[in-house]
Design goal:
It comes from Nonomuraea longicatena. Belongs to the AfsR/DnrI/RedD regulatory family. This is BTAD domain-containing putative transcriptional regulator. By secondary structure, the chain is mainly α. Among the domains are: 166 residues, Arc Repressor Mutant, subunit A, CATH 1.10.10; 137 residues, 3-Layer(aba) Sandwich (Rossmann fold); 82 residues, no CATH class; 66 residues, Orthogonal Bundle (Arc Repressor Mutant, subunit A), CATH 1.10.10; 166 residues, Serine Threonine Protein Phosphatase 5, Tetratricopeptide repeat. It contains 47 helices and ten strands. It has a five-stranded parallel β-sheet, with helices on both faces. It has a three-stranded mixed β-sheet with strand order 2-1-5. Strands 3-4 form a two-stranded antiparallel sheet. The longest helix is centred in the first third of the chain and has 25 residues. The radius of gyration is 45 Å and the shape is elongated.
Length: 1023
């Protein structure tokens, strides 16, 4: 690349700084003309006029082309001078005038940074602009503009230096430009601040006279106001307070609110201490806050920075900062106090943590002797001085941390950058160290290497203190300041995941002669541990602590203590009673520690203790992984068998075949859990008679154990199993007994289960208001528990469907389906899809209903879901019938009838008979269809569960078709014939005697009287 200079004689340089010779005056003038146009095309005619004026050469075009050729040759790259229809243009990427203008136009707010920019800009000038072509007409406008901009930059630089309190001498410029009022204002102010008030007044008087004599003008109002302030000796004209603060090299990111707060605190309190972990940015925040206070002239006598990191006596460092010489035999501290006694100044004491006690003593003495003094300190722990205001500096919030890292590393924000920021806890120093590695490795690679962060983050800024050049050095500084008890507690705390409470800290960190609570308090004070009630370590501090734990040979011991503590916590978690919510919250809070403990020694007891917690939280994946892993560690046979039982149940819940249970290894409680839980999660599938046997065994075992919760859970399960027999009396009896027990126990989950058994019964009887109220209460309780809620949503969707509110029903079912998929709850997903299919068919979308249900038939066969198969086949058969496909409808309904007979559920048989009636009526077999309707009605009546009106639309539709095709007498005869054939469809034990009504009922769980409905024939329109 070639660089060009016009701020002085025309010059060209190569990258290595070597000058490029451009021969012949006209060629140089051509180059200057092209540079003056800033890369824009210049026509040939314009160039000829600029170079030769009114005396062009005979062949002007040819001569110009020759000069262009010479210029290209001199520059060494023909592509630097291009020709287009618009003319010639110079490709100049680096021109000193362009850089000058860019620097001048930045307008940076920070005075020291702005002064540096202006110094850099003015240093580019080597003499008058375009010095060797100034006599050519094209150059003069450009020269005038650049010279004016140069003078403005000189004026601004003088103003900025005045603002910084630096001496300024613009006398030579004033002599050269005596009528420039802005320059004159700087001159007057600089003279006044130098103690030359008379000369300042004389400078104003001279300007006023010149303006009047030469231009007939008066000074501007601003200059006249300055003159008035001179006369009354306005204190604001005094030099700004003395500052010993270093200039900021980079902008402070994400601390605007903190800056405002610290500034307000220093204005209100005489001692403000910024605390926080190493690298969090205490020093940067303190310095930026001090600069703001200095600019606001809050401290007329200045601000002094006292850097204590390398000091051994704080009084020596303070004395040096406030210019008190240690050249006397008199004690230094009183002389420092005397020097500050009459001042209004701010001391910034940086890095006090290794000298806390002597710093505290010195600060207390200085504040007592100097009422106008304020102190802003930074330390990893408070100074502990009366009147101290402590402000904890937090890590950067993630958006600010991401902005800092991406800015420092020069990369785009993205997930890898966010991961780095999270894993480095938003600590600015760690992010600065990471930025150097991002530039070398890339964000994705660095994010993947942070498990080995102390080897990776080893390259900081060379001008940083040694303790800030690597991540390890940053934490080493804090570690070296600790006593042995604090080191012991810190390294043992590091074994925890996501922090711990005081109980866990004392259990894991216990050591004779060590007061864990006192050491913990000291670590909190030193900003190495976040304050309780939950004590957390930054991830980098925890990684450092684990290294120290291994070095001390304590790792295995502490891991064993950790696993033991959290096993005990899980085993005493009262998840079956009134404290259910509180314990769920506590285990949620400890989830990271529990997961860690499951990878420790002998995790089988812990896995078994957590099984019910995982169930209530719907964490089936975590449960299966953890139980399977714990089983591989082995343990007592009863414990292994119990873990296999829980694992089998969770496996069935996600719709997969379960493993074998070594039942002989189970103790009495284990057998009770196995009989109840495995039937509970699978009650609607498989061998219903086997479920009945299992629940009876569970009831007996729980009773023998005196386990009231287990007995209530088994009763509720027995109530739900009774639906398969259509035994409404048993559903009510066991459901109400279970609900009463769970209410007494204060168990929300148990109340949900019991209410669902009673809601199923109410729905069967057509008592939809009761069923809806029960299910709304279920949903509220499930939300309190944080339970997934898919089943409750599906059931409310069914209530909405029966009420004819299809939009609400679809919404409930779709939400239930989504939750079930997220939680891998296969059975609940099936129920939600079934609800969507029912809604689709009722709204006339028959193909959609079939498409929703048909994929589930294979899964239902795998899990022996005979009841579900019967229902799905009935629904898809109805859909085929409604779209006019009699053959498909009949085939499906026959398969469904066979499945219904296999379940032994009278209501399933009745639905299958109604489905067959529909298919037969469409096929023209009207008498058989009418007989099937009569048989279905008799089956429903036999168990006291006639078809409710809201579910009779299929029967009404089929009846209407038969009424149109048959004589009334023929229909009635066939219908009654079907009723008499009841015994062909259901066992006699399930039937009510001829003419009998269902037994009288009491109150439902809400205190409403049940309305017993007599067995009745379905309505027969037109007959």
């Amino acid at each position: 690349m070639v660089r060009f200079g016009v701020l002085g004689p025309l010059a060209v340089w190569r990258d290595d700084g070597e000058s490029v010779h451009v021969p012949e005056a006209k060629v140089r003038a051509l180059l200057a003309d092209l540079l003056a146009h800033g890369g824009r095309p210049v026509s040939a005619d314009r160039l000829v006029e600029d170079l030769w004026g009114g005396r062009p050469p005979r062949n002007a075009t040819g001569t110009l082309q020759a000069r262009v050729s010479q210029l290209r040759k001199a520059l060494g790259d023909p592509a630097l001078v291009l020709h287009s229809p618009g003319g010639y243009r110079l490709v100049a990427e680096d021109v000193d005038a362009v850089r000058f203008e860019s620097l001048v136009e930045r307008r940076t707010a920070e005075p020291r940074v702005r002064a540096g920019e202006l110094d850099e800009a003015l240093a580019l000038w080597r003499g008058p602009a375009y010095a060797d072509v100034a006599d050519l007409g094209f150059a003069q406008p450009v020269i005038n503009r650049l010279e004016e901009l140069r003078l403005s930059a000189q004026e601004e630089l003088a103003e900025v230096r005045l603002e910084l309190g630096e001496p300024v001498d613009v006398s030579a410029l004033v002599r050269e430009h005596p009528l420039r009022e802005r320059l004159r204002a700087v001159h007057i102010t600089s003279l006044y601040r130098a103690g030359r008030q008379n000369e300042a007044l004389a400078s104003y008087t001279e300007l006023r006279a010149r303006l009047s004599d030469e231009l007939g003008l008066d000074p501007s109002p601003e200059l006249a106001a300055l003159y008035e302030r001179l006369l009354r000796q306005d204190p604001a004209l005094a030099p700004p307070p003395v500052s010993h603060l270093p200039a900021a090299l980079t902008p402070l990111v994400g601390r605007d609110a903190e800056l405002a707060e610290v500034g307000a605190l220093v204005g209100r309190d005489r001692l403000v201490t910024l605390t926080g972990p190493g690298g969090v940015g205490k020093t940067s925040l303190a310095l930026e806050a001090a600069r703001g206070l200095l600019s606001a002239r809050a401290f007329p006598d200045g601000v002094a920075l006292v850097e204590l990191a390398g000091a051994t006596r704080p009084v020596d460092a303070v004395a040096a900062a406030v210019c008190v010489r240690d050249d006397s035999s008199a004690p230094l501290e009183p002389r420092v106090a005397q020097a500050l006694s009459g001042t209004r100044a701010l001391l910034v004491l940086d890095n006090c943590e290794h000298l806390v006690e002597p710093v505290a003593t010195l600060v207390a003495a200085l504040l007592r002797s100097a009422p106008g003094l304020r102190v802003l300190a930074t330390s990893q722990e408070p100074l502990g001085v009366t009147g101290e205001r402590v402000h904890q500096v937090p890590p950067l919030a993630e958006p600010d941390a991401v902005r800092l890292l991406s800015d420092r590393a020069g990369v785009a924000e993205g997930e890898a950058v966010r991961t780095i920021c999270r894993r480095l806890d938003g600590i600015p120093l760690a992010l600065e160290l990471a930025a150097t590695r991002v530039r070398a490795l890339g964000a994705e690679e660095l994010a993947g290497r942070l498990d080995d962060r102390f080897r990776v983050l080893t390259s900081g800024m060379r001008d940083a203190p040694a303790r800030q050049r690597t991540l390890r050095a940053m934490i080493d500084w804090s570690w070296e300041l600790l006593g042995e008890p604090e080191r012991l507690v810190l390294r043992r705390l590091a074994v925890h995941a996501d922090g711990c409470d005081l109980e866990a800290a004392e259990a894991v960190c216990a050591e004779p002669g060590v007061d864990v609570l006192e050491s913990l308090a000291r670590l909190v004070d030193r900003s190495l541990v976040a304050p309780g009630p939950r004590y957390r370590l930054l991830e980098s501090v925890a990684a450092y602590g684990l290294e120290r734990l291994r070095e001390a040979g304590e790792y295995d011991l502490v891991r064993a203590r950790h696993t033991g503590h959290y096993t005990g916590l899980a085993e005493r978690a009262a998840l079956h009673g009134p404290d259910q919510l509180a314990w769920l919250d506590r285990l949620d809070q400890e989830s990271a520690n529990l997961e860690l403990a499951l990878t420790g020694p002998a995790p089988l007891r812990l896995a078994n203790a957590l099984a019910w917690y995982w169930f209530l939280r719907g964490r089936l994946g975590a449960a299966r992984r953890s139980l399977a892993q714990a089983i591989t560690y082995g343990g007592a046979p009863a414990e292994v068998a119990l873990a296999r039982t829980w694992l089998a149940g969770f496996t069935m819940m996600v719709g997969e075949p379960r493993g074998e249970i070594p039942r002989a290894d189970l103790d009495l409680r284990g057998r009770a859990v196995a009989d109840w839980f495995l039937s509970f999660v699978h009650w609607a599938y498989g061998d219903l008679a086997a479920h009945d046997d299992a629940v009876e065994r569970a009831l007996a075992a729980f009773g023998e154990l005196g386990d009231r919760w287990g007995s209530a859970a088994a009763l509720v399960l027995r109530a739900k199993l009774a639906v398969g027999r259509g035994d409404l009396d048993a559903m009510r009896r066991d459901g109400e007994a279970g609900l009463a027990a769970f209410r007494e126990l204060g168990d929300r989950w148990g109340r949900i289960e019991a209410m669902e058994a009673l809601a199923m019964r109410a729905e069967i009887r057509g008592d939809y208001p009761t069923a809806t109220r029960l299910r709304e209460t279920e949903l509220l309780l499930s939300e309190e528990l944080g339970f997934p809620g898919a089943a409750e949503l599906s059931k409310l969707g069914r209530m909405a469907l029966l009420a004819g509110d299809h939009a609400r029903a679809d919404d409930y079912h779709e939400r239930a389906r989504r939750i079930a998929v997220e939680q891998s709850l296969k059975s609940e997903e099936e129920h939600a899809v079934l609800g969507l299919a029912l809604g689709a068919r009722r709204q006339g979308r028959y193909e959609e209903a079939e498409a929703l249900l048909e994929p589930w038939l294979g899964w239902l066969e795998q899990v022996s879901g005979t009841s579900g198969i019967a229902f799905a086949l009935a629904e898809t058969g109805f859909a085929a019938e409604q779209r006019g496909d009699a053959g498909t409808a009949l085939a499906r309904q026959r398969r469904g009838y066979a499945a219904a007979r296999e379940t032994g559920d009278p209501r399933a048989v009745a639905l299958a008979l109604e489905g067959l009636a529909g298919a037969l009526s469409l096929a023209g077999e009207h008498e058989r269809a009418a007989g099937h309707l009569g048989a279905a009605a008799a089956v429903r009546a036999s168990v006291g569960a006639p078809l409710p009106p809201a579910e009779s639309f299929d029967v009404e539709r089929i009846t209407a078709r038969l009424a149109a095709a048959m004589m009334p007498g023929d229909y009635a005869l066939a219908y009654r014939s079907g009723q008499r054939e009841l015994g062909d469809h259901v066992p006699a034990a399930l039937r009510v005697g001829p003419g009998e009504q269902p037994a009288a009922e009491g109150l439902d769980p809400f205190g409403h009287a049940d309305q017993a409905e007599p067995a009745a024939e379905p309505r027969r329109p037109g007959i």
